[in-house]
Every structure is written in C-alpha cells, then in structure tokens.
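hey so i finally got around to running the thing on that chain from the lab meeting. sorry it took forever, my laptop kept dying and i had to restart like 3 times. anyway pasting the input first so we r on the same page abt which one it is
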Amino acid sequence: MSRFAWFRARRHSRYLALAGITVTVAVVATLVTQAPGHSAVASAGPAQVPTVEQAVAGLISVADSYPGGLTALEELFVTGECAGAQSYQDASPACQALLDQIVAQGIADPATTSDTVPFSTDTVPFSTPSSALSSLPSSVPSSVPESTPTAPSPTSTSSTDVSPPPTTDPAPGSTTPPPTMTPPSSVPPSSTTPPTMQPPPPLPPLLVAVGDSVTSGHESRPVRQPNGAVIWQTTCDDPTTSWADDLRNLLGVPVARYYNFAHSGATTTDVLATKPYTNPCGVASQQARTQIGDAIAVLQNNPSRPGAANVAVATAGINDTNWVNVATGLIIGVVPAWAIANAQACTDYVLGNPAGNPGAPAGVILPAWDGQARSGTITTGVAKIALNLITADPAAQVRDLLYYKWGKDPYLPANCGQAAQNATDLLNGWIKLGVAVAQLALIMSGGNPTRINTSCDRNWPLGPQNIQVQLTSQGIPNNARVPGWPHPNIAGRADLATCINGTLPRAPGGGIG
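ok and heres what got predicted. didnt touch it at all, straight out
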C-alpha cells in the first residue's frame, strides 16, 4: 500500500529540536565490539560519532536534496544506499559518503529552531508547533552498576497472570538476579579419578518487550457476576494476552525467559524515565527501575550467543499525543457537527487546515490532534529506546512495531476512518525517522544497524476482525470508557506476532541470527 509523502522537507532550516537532549551514543562502540557473537570492528572508521540531536538534524538537512525526500531517506538502511551494511567499514563508498555528509551537516548545524518533524503540505496542510518541547531526561542508563540487583520488576500486575512452572531460570516477576550458569571449577577429593564434568547447556534466548498498551496485553474482558449478569472489565497489563506472547511461542522462548515490561498508557518518556509507574487501571509497578532500565538489566545479564540472538520489541509514541482525547470526543460525539459531516471535514478537524472547510466556521482550522507538535518527542524517544536496547545486547535483534491501521471502526464515526489512517501514517513516519536516527548513530559508532528496524505497517480492512470492539469497562471507576488506540484481539495479536517473526533472520541451526 502506498505511503503518503508527508515528510518531504521543503527548507533546510526546518529541523527537529531536541531541547535538553545530551545523550550521545559513543558508549555503543565499546559494547558492540564486546558482545558475544558480534565481530569486532576495525579501529579506523568515521571521525565523528553524532549525538541523537545531530543525527536528526543531519537526516532532515540532507533530505532536502535526497531523491524522494525524508520518506526515502528513512529507508537508507533498508532499501537505500546502506541496505545490508553491517558496519561503516564494510559499507559501499556511496553509503560511506552519504553517512559522512549526514553527520557533517548535522554537526555543523544542529537542530535548535523547531520541535516538529516536517512533512509534505501536499498531504497534511497544516501544523502548529508546540510552544515548548517537553525535554526527555538528560541521560538514560545504558548500563547497570554491578552492585545493583539486576532482576526485572514483575512483567504484569494483573491478577490473571499465569505463573511459570518451577524452573532454575528466574520467572519474569522474580526478585532475584537472573542466574549466570557456569561449570563447576572443581570436584570433591576422591580415591578414584573424577569423571569429566560437562558444562550445563546454555540458557535459551529470551524475549524482552517494552512500550505501551499495544504490547502490554491491554484487554477488556467479560466477567460474569453472581446474579448472572455480565460486565466488562479492563485489564491494563497482562503479558499472556500480548502479541509478544504469541511471538514468544513462535520463537520457542520459554515462559520464564519472556520479560514484558510494557504498560498501558506509557509514553516514550515513560519507557525511558518513569518509576514507579501507575497504569490507567490504577496499578503501580516499576518500583526500582524504568522499563528501559529493567530491559537493560535482563539483556546485559543474558547476552545473545552466536546463532541464538535475543529479541527485544517495542511499541511507543501514540501516548505522547492527545489521541485518546481526540478519539474519545469523536466516539461520544462532543465535537462540532461539521467535523463529522464528511471524510474531508473529519480530516480537517483532526489534522487541521489553514484554508478552512466549507462546512466549518470561516478561518483557519487548528488541528485537534497534537501529533505534529509532539513529533520531536516521539522521534527522539523512539531513537533512545532502540539505542538503549541494542547497547545492552549488541548481538540482539531489536524491532519497533509500527502502529497498525484499521478500517470500518464500529465506534468511530463512519466519516473519520480516513483521518485515523492519515494520523497513523504520520505517527509511523516519525517512528521510522527515530529508528533511522538510531541506525545512523549506531553504524557511526561501530555497530551493526541491520540489527534494529521498524516492522509491520499493517492495514486491516475491517477493524472487528483484528481489534477489540468492546471499549466499555464497568467496575473500574477510572476506566469507565477506554477508547485509546484500538487493541488487537486474538486474531490481531497472532497477525502481529507472525509478521514480526517473519522479519527475524534465522541462523543455520534454526535460532535467531
């Protein structure tokens, strides 16, 4: 399905501001060359490693003259000049030249003047920059001190969680550090020659998930009452009803090696910086570390092996915006009548239009959805999440699941389906840019950009086939109505897991490469 060219930059001066962002990715270079199963790179390489800010500025700047604009440049490591390059040294001369140009322009003229990502005025005609960009934390831990307990916090706070069977491997909610399995160093004295002790088999790879309700297992469930009536209750975080659990099954990852730290309602900033975290159902978790901190601890203490790479997945970005409020207004009808009169009117209402709309009051229509104003936060947050995951385990495979589109939503007004799809396209474009930033920063610091990517831009023609259509939650006061992003049902979860599984390279022995 064709994508809208909303990201094509029109002027060199239009940059994404990353106020307060001082995180660099130089630490990646050290960790990449030390990871099991990852070849050390040559000492000679690019002269400068860009910060996240400089990488974004360089990509947007070069996009002005790049064929296809920023939309095409986001695919640099997928279908562009650098497709398949696993390091700066083995990249083609054309790739190296382009990378050097991007970094040079980003370092020479870093982003400082705008907090939105540009897009084509041919697709979405209007945007209003936010007055101030909410700064992400100045630092995100890329390592965990040795003295810090390295066990993750519970993967779920739902009472419906399934406890894993007894095992020597820690359960996701364990309070003890993941074990390091080593062979005995000695045997007791004996009058006979002791048998040769074989080392225990290596632990299987693991699956780590971070993000929002799409990944946390957010679900509305029918609950039968003593009088026979059925009410619906929302469970915010249940890893057993996440698409990530379907992926776990496809990968053959044991339950005890599945760590899902995602939480309903989480923003990119929440993934990186919020603890303790209280989800929309009122349940607190992540007491000791953030989502990304727990994910780092697990990956660092259970590094990938050759032919048996760990997998880390993420979804985040939609909650950085006011989509829930906009969707709620459309669903319950607290919007102007003109806004849902036809498809163009709803698009103008959601995304804005400086030319106005014939059915609306005269003048500029400001966007109800603040996605464009929050694009800087989304892009930066996605880049930092990906970099932290791959830094913790440079031989892992990291996938950022794009948000799916859906048609014929039973709750949204019929004329607003296209507006929702347009908003999704924009959101996914900012996520793709964030991952491209992470890939650029990684390869310039000596890493392998092919190990991180965005995946699975799904388009479900009929929402009810793949998403939950029940939105009402009774019995939970602060969750009386939870539209938000429609959450996948059983079929949708299976589709997402199958799609992600298909993007993961297999090693000769059958494991993840």
